[in-house]
Design a protein that fits this description.
Elements: E1 3-10, H1 14-32, E2 36-41, H2 45-50, H3 63-69, E3 73-78, H4 88-100, E4 105-111, E5 129-135, E6 145-148, E7 156-159, H5 165-182, E8 187-192, H6 201-211, E9 218-223, H7 224-233, E10 240-243, H8 245-258, E11 266-270, E12 276-280, H9 297-309, H10 313-328, H11 342-356, E13 377-379
Parallel strand pairs: 1-2, 1-3, 2-13, 3-12, 5-10, 8-9, 8-10
Antiparallel strand pairs: 4-5, 4-11, 6-7, 11-12
Helix pairs in contact: 1-9, 1-11, 5-6, 7-8, 9-10, 10-11
This protein binds 3-isopropylmalic acid and manganese (II) ion (MN).
Manganese (II) ion binds at residues 249, 253, 281.
């Protein structure tokens, strides 16, 4: 049975980095003999502008939700555009997918593949290998907010940090399970701010209670301010981390910098057993749009995570090994935008995957979409 994916390239550099992720997927399909059917969606800033602009135009049409029901996973590039108010498209697309599909886990691995990519002094690749599990449906992101007396000197603005017992419990249980699966040091760190945000007491209690189901796992709770300090000072002390939505957002950007930059960090928005969404954690970087300068490794890694989610574990491992090998051997010497063309990096990963899978390296393939093998490519306009 073919794997069915929805592709939403989105804004800025999103479409071009997605293209490279799909190129790697095509290479794997060919090498490993499986099929992928994909729907490509045009949504994002341009589509919204073309259909009427902010307030009137279409952000996501209702039809997308029935299309998604038929899929195994979604591959997303990037969302965000300076023509729109900050957060409008982000919440309308990324937020809508996370909330409506109840993707309660945001899985963000932080791993160093080459010592010279790390801005910290004297850290080896084995010193940075942590897995952050960010809660993805609650907290300040739940959208319980408002303004009073907007645009007056007396304006009041609020945004509530919401946590439910069920919401904490399910993501914490998932994190314990992941920590067990990793078989690293069997330590799970809870990152919160229970000393100032007293509501985080719910996280502390739930962490301790769910932890009883996992007696092999050492429980470690820390405040987020301390966490940022330890991530810089002793990243080797981390194994698996579980945290709130907002803190997870922040510490994973820090983590991305430790592994070399946003050009490599990927994330999975997951509801175990259901349609889930995979994306690079970087933004749309409008200034690099269409210049073939963006580094697509984060999108390629997101594709690897997608493959893992749909049960293609060996192919997922191949992607990681290829990316890791290219970085460790300096064949991709830098993660900076512009250091190497976007499509060239995609080609290198495809070739590396072929070599690792025992096939010979070859010249770059014609652009994706031109092959007979794929059963269905529906582009919606
Ligand atoms: C992320 C992004 C989003 C977030 C933005 C685009 C709303 O920064 O996925 O990390 O804050 O979750
Ligand atoms: Mn972020």
């Amino acid at each position: 049975m073919a794997i069915k994916i929805g592709v939403l390239g989105g804004d800025g550099i999103g479409p071009e980095v997605c293209r490279e992720g799909l190129k790697v997927l095509d290479a794997l399909c060919e090498l490993r003999g499986f099929d992928v059917e994909r729907i490509e969606w045009p949504y994002g800033a341009d589509y919204c502008v073309q259909t009427g602009g902010p307030g009137k135009g279409i952000v996501l049409p209702d039809s997308i939700w029935s299309e998604i029901r038929e899929l195994d996973a979604i591959f997303l590039g990037a969302i965000g555009d300076p023509r729109f108010e900050a957060g409008f498209l982000e919440f309308g697309i990324v937020g809508a997918l996370r909330f409506k599909l109840d993707l309660y886990v945001n899985l963000r691995p932080i791993k160093l593949y080459s010592e010279d990519l790390c801005p910290l002094k004297g850290k080896k690749i084995t010193d940075l290998d942590m897995l952050v599990i960010r809660e993805n449906t609650e907290d300040a992101y739940a959208g319980i907010m408002g303004h009073l007396k907007k645009n007056t000197p007396d304006e009041v603005a609020i945004q509530e940090m919401i946590y439910t017992r069920k919401g904490c419990e399910r993501v914490i249980r998932y994190a314990y399970q992941k920590c067990m699966e990793r078989k690293k040091t069997f330590k799970l760190s809870l990152v919160d701010k229970a000393n100032a945000i007293r509501a985080h007491d719910l996280w502390r209690r739930t962490f301790a209670e769910v932890g009883k189901e996992f007696p092999q796992v050492t429980q470690d709770a820390m405040y987020v301010d301390a966490c940022t300090m330890w991530m810089v000072k002793n990243p080797e002390s981390f194994d698996t981390v579980v945290t709130t939505n907002l803190f997870g957002d922040i510490i994973t950007d820090l983590g991305a910098m430790l592994q070399g930059g946003l050009g490599i960090a990927a994330g999975g928005n997951i509801h175990p057993g259901r349609v889930s969404m995979f994306e690079p954690i970087h933004g749309s970087a409008p200034k690099y749009k269409g210049q073939n300068k963006a580094n697509p490794l984060a999108a390629i890694n997101a594709m690897g995570m997608l493959l893992d989610h749909v049960g293609r574990h060996e192919e997922a491992a191949l992607v990681e090994k290829a990316v890791g090998g290219l970085l460790a051997s300096h064949r991709i010497p830098s993660l900076q935008a512009g250091a190497m063309p976007c499509d060239r990096i995609g080609d290198l990963v495809c070739n590396e995957v072929r070599v690792l899978a025992g096939d010979k390296p070859r010249k770059p393939k014609p652009p994706s979409g031109s092959k007979k093998k794929r059963k269905m490519t529906v582009a919606r306009r």
